[in-house]
Amino acid sequence: MTTSRPGDRGDLLDPRCPTRQLLDRIGTKWTSMAVKVLAEEAPVAPGELRFAELRRRIPGISQKMLSVTLQSLVRDGLVARRVEPTVPPAVHYRLTELGLSLEIPLSALRVWAETHMPEINRSNQLADESPPD
Q: What is the pLDDT along the chain (133 residues), one digit of tens a residue?
């Protein structure tokens, strides 16, 4: 396990770089969608959502992928999981303070994507129309 101290600068090309490790964990569309949905629940103090409600709010995610995504977020301390001892058990998820702080850079990335995807799509279209080298 690699640890870093505040002020350490990583080398993104080094597999032990903290930034690279974080991107491996949060660089999926499902992670960013789960964080967004949980952050929207209550912007000041994140609310809780049950598994089924999360699945309804994240278009296209399978039950297995949501389960894997939430397990990873819980393991990393970004999401808290609470189980009510009912039959069947009611499981609730909410962002931790750390998870809520992740919504800020993810939101900035969404704004960047919304701003620049038309340019990227145009570039892709031009590349697809050009004869291969």
A: 445 454 456 788 888 888 888 888 888 899 999 999 999 865 455 578 999 999 999 999 999 999 999 999 999 999 999 999 999 999 999 999 999 999 889 989 889 999 999 999 999 999 999 877 7
CA dihedral 9, 79, 39, 98 (to 10 degrees): -30
SS3 letters for 65-116?
Answer: HHHHHHHHHHHCCCEEEEEECCCCCEEEEEECHHHHHHHHHHHHHHHHHHHH
